[in-house]
Amino acid sequence: MNKNDLLQLYTNPQPIPSQFNEGFSQYETVKYLIGLTNNLITNQNLGADEIADLEGKKVSLEYYLNDLANNRKLSPTGDFSGKWHGHEMVETDPGIQIIVNDHTNELLDYRNVKTIYDIKSDGSDITTKLISALNDNKSLYFPDGEYTINGVVTITNKDIIMYGNNVTFKGTGGFTFDSDISVSTFVNDIVDGSSSINSLIDCNVGDMLLINGSISHSLYTPNRYLTTSVLAKVIDIAGNMIRLDRKINFSLSNVTANIILNPYKVDIKNIIFDGVSMNVSKSNNVNIDNKFIGNTDISLSINQCSNIKVNFKGINLKNATQGIVLNDCNSFDVNVIGVNIGKQDSSGTKAVRCNGLSNGKINAILSDSWHNDVVIYGARNVNVDVISNGSGRYFRDNNIITPNRNESVQFSECDNLEIHCNMDNVDDQGLELLACYKCKVYPKINTLVNSTEGAIVVKGGSQDISIVNPFIRANNPYSIKVECTNNLSDSANTTRTNDIKIINPNIVNFNASGYGIILRDSPITVNANVKILGGYIKAMYPIMGNDINHNGLTVLNSLIESNGGHGINSIGDYLLVSNVIVLNGNVTTVRAVISSGANDKVNKVTSDGVVYVRANARDNFNIKNYMDNRVPYIWFDTKSWHIYCDKLQYRVNSIPVEYIWTRDTKLGLINATGGGFAEIICIEDGTPGVWKTCNPISV
After folding, report:
1. 566 vs 471: CA distance, rounded Å
2. Separation CA 264–CA 153 (nearest Å)
């Protein structure tokens, strides 16, 4: 490159040259670099981080240019001989030379593939040339155009940096990025929350380890996702104890570890992948911001990686079994926009599919997913935010209404999740949690006519689940279904779904025989411990504890509206109801509360329907557990003696002759002949206790 070439590049910057001639004056070289840097900033469609970095470099170069011109008196118009102004030639300044060389090398990282590697957007397959370019371990810049990739671009142990400007990769090929690893070394079992491992692996501080093991859990034996891997950095070594830069949020057995021999980063932005897929494995720095279209099985797959930032846009991926997949990843921030993702058949595709995740967040905005929106197995400490419309499109387009056909968002064997979902026009089930533990869910769900199962289903041994502010408009048989069965692999029948809180629900079920909230399906007696706290529930059957095996239903401070069935119907024991209003009840067919357990407590119910006491509850009835109700009656199953509760004081037709009564209980005794009533009081505990009249008849 000669003087004229250099000046031409400064005034009209071209693709970056592969090398600079050291015979040029330092002044002109620095001045050229400033112009070239400015061109990159203004014309190359870089991201904000790259622009900020280059702006900083430009400021540094301008400082040195000023120093050369004003302090060192280097001629800006000389003959490029390197002479100082007015003096004989001197040695090149080594400090300035270092700055020039360093900045030149950094600028050269943004390599134009058309000029440097003869990679063209002319329809020819660039697979082979692109492999060669990426193996140079440099940043690649793709000018405008459509580049054909029909082969597999496989790169191992190299940083991958590609940027585009109105660029499309089109074809039937794909990218596979990976790193070599050491042989496996044994590691002692790991307890959830550990940030150290005990192993003889020959590693150093700063090494990245891939830790692999079988997942263990205190509540169940995993059977949907059995093993996982965690990528972590070594920060300290003391004997066999190796301290990591993060916690391992799984309990693991049969543990091994491998050293990542060549940790690498992936940085790919502003490129459309049309039929071309990408698979990234064992990277400790992933930054992807791209759009995917066309026919691929899995558009983007990220496996055994950490420190991940992804913006995935998937549009019309009509042949995809999955749009984006994350397996065994940690420390991630993934944003997904997906429209019309999934094979147009019955194969059950997923727009977002994840396994073995820990410590990260997923935000997904999805429309017309052909089957599932999001399916996640074996996750720990993850925030998930889903906005979706029209999931299950395959079933609508093909007029399929078979039962249990689709779960739009599903979590299985996950711990410590926070889930926000706003789901409209869901075909079939909205949200399912199977064998999940310590999760908070904030759902807004609207399901379509002919949807089956539940808008929300909690099952499979799930425990400690809080469903907060659920806004549900359901056409399913169940708005929220709590299946109190054991985990599928728990043959001992010991782990049951329990400790479920439904906080401030707003539920309307449009199904003619639908339920608002139901407990069901346990073959043995369990303490379901389901708490409904506050809110509004409207359905044919608003709240149901389905059979005698489901104990521990609590309903507090709620407004319930019946469409024809009983308001609260508990067939198990330990029902607790307090401060509840039941609308549309009556004394004959729509009961406010049905109590069936010997240990039930029903207090402060207001309704035109009765509190109905079945045989098991009746035989151990204690008035202290049924206080302050404003209902027509406390009605005893198969009995003609009842308690009138429509006045401030409970009243009866005759002195009690059965049930448990305690001292100082007062009732009004109705005068059957003359109207009014007398007050009677229990003066001795017992069944039925001892009673006497304490006040005269009042009219």
Report:
1. 22
2. 16
**Which pLDDT value is given to residue 63?**
63
Q: Which residue, 277, 288, 338, is CA-closest to 164?
A: 288
Average pLDDT over residues 67-91: 41
Supply the pLDDT for residue 487: 55
Bridge partners, 530 (sequence order): 500, 553
CA distance 453 to 401: 12
Please give the full DSSP string across 485-501, using - where no structure is assigned. PBPTT-TT---B-EEEE
Give dist(CA 201, CA 241) in Å, integer: 10
- In a 3-state reduction of DSSP, which class is residue 665? coil
Distance of CA 340 to the CA centre of its chain: 20
pTM here is 0.83
Cβ burial, residue 309 (10 Å; 0-12/13-18/19+)? middle
What is the tally of helices (H) and strands (E) in the chain? 8, 50
> What are φ and ψ of residue 42, in 5° steps?
-90, -25
- Residue 430, CA distances (Å) to 101, 121, 196, 274, 484 in order: 59, 44, 39, 31, 19
Residue 373's closest CA among 357, 388, 395?
388
Q: What is the 8-class DSSP label of residue 240? A: T
Contacts of 683 (CB under 8 A, 6+ apart): 663, 689, 690, 691, 692
CB distance 660 to 621 below 8 Å: yes
Distance CA 19, CA 28 (A): 15
**Among the listed residues 320, 335, 325, the one whose alpha carbon sits nearest the alpha carbon of residue 305:** 325
Alpha carbon distances (Å) from 241 to 216, 245, 254, 328? 22, 13, 17, 23
Max distance between CA atoms of the chain, in angstroms, equals 134
Total number of residues shown for the chain: 699
Q: Which residues of 316-338 are buried (b: 16+ CB within 10 A; e: fewer)?
A: ebebbbbbbbbbbbbbbebbbbb
Tell me: pLDDT of 455 over 50: yes
Q: Which residue has the tokens 């199977």?
A: 434
HSE-up of residue 324 (Cα within 13 Å, Cβ side)? 28
| Residue 67, pLDDT score | 56
Are the beta carbons of 567 and 607 closer than 8 angstroms? Answer: yes
pLDDT tens-digit series, residues 104-138: 444 444 567 887 889 999 999 999 999 999 998 67
In this predicted model, what pLDDT tens digit does every residue of 323-370 receive, in sequence order? 999 999 999 999 999 999 998 887 778 999 999 999 999 999 999 999
Strand partners, 318: none
Whether the per-residue pLDDT at 519 is higher than 70: the answer is: yes
The C-alpha angle 74, 77, 83, rounded to 5 degrees, equals 40
* Rounded Cα gap, residues 89 and 586, in angstroms: 108
Are residues 520 and 483 in contact, defined by beta-carbon separation less than 8 angstroms?
yes
Q: Could you give the C-alpha distances from 13 to 34, 163, 228, 470, in angstroms and in order?
A: 11, 19, 50, 58
Residue 236 CB neighbours (<10 A): 11
Residue type, 117: Y
SS3 605: strand
The answer to whether the CB of 350 falls within 8 A of the CB of 322 is yes
Phi-psi region of 676 (alpha: psi -120 to 50; beta: other; left: phi over 0): left
Q: What's the CA gap between 232 and 303, in Å, rounded? A: 14
